[in-house]
Input
Amino acid sequence: MNVELLWWEGCPSTEKARAAVEEALSDLGLDGTPVRMREVRTDEDAEQAGFVGSPTILIDGVDLVPAVDDEPIGLSCRVYRRRDGRISPIPDPDDLREALRSAAERAEVNR
Amino acid sequence: MSLSIGQVAPDFSLLDTQGRKWSVASYDGAPATVVVFTCNHCPYALAWHDRIVDVAREYAARGVRVLAVNSNDADRYPRDSFDAMKDRVAKEDWPMPYLHDATQEVARAYGATVTPDVFVLDAEDKLRYRGAPDANYDNPGERAEWLREALDSVLDGSILQRPETKPVGCSIKWKA
Output
């Protein structure tokens, strides 16, 4: 499984997001899975990566929370919604765990 | 450069989403004024918004004024355009004016760095608190406690134990 965290320096949520991903991996017994950090520095980088905000977490190349149509590409902080409706700069831990679990299961099936 | 505690805050003249002009100096007689730099697209500003709204409502009876200011570059961040600000206020119930700092001069004069960035001024427009609304954007139970402490201190004339905290949020989007 390939886990990638795209980040931009204008948002203070990067380390929290990384910790949340690592915690979710640990919860699922996937501690050894590396989290690749990729900095998005410029508008051109953002355009190329389809980056809609920091942090964006890709699991096997797929956005953990698919961007909605009106989310503009660019250097900004991403708005997530927790399952209880609260707005947050990082994804809900349950969404994170669910996406990682599904990806791990897919990887197992394809092995 | 940032405004220092005890320094008189620079005055400004900005339009709100209703087309009304606002300034700090126009608040003669207000015991305290809160200037909060905020915006439409930042998750930190959005997460703290309801707590700041609650403060604006609750302290209005004590004469406190809250001014929300959006200074982000709307060319690169259209979700922070003046039209988007108007749309937002039209859809939500704001107890405070939402001001457009199109030139970003006010944010620069105050030394605001992120959204939200909170400045509490006393009756003489001197800065008494600058920083985050409270310790945790993720916990509504914090109720913008640092902002409330600052306002209570200004209103009752007591010494504020925590005049500065680190503002936490999205960087202000400066024009190139």
About this structure: The interface with chain A takes residues 41-44, 46-47, 76-79, 137-138, 140, 168-171, 173 of chain B (CB under 8 Å). The first helix of chain B runs from residue 43 to 60. Chain B has a mean pLDDT of 95.
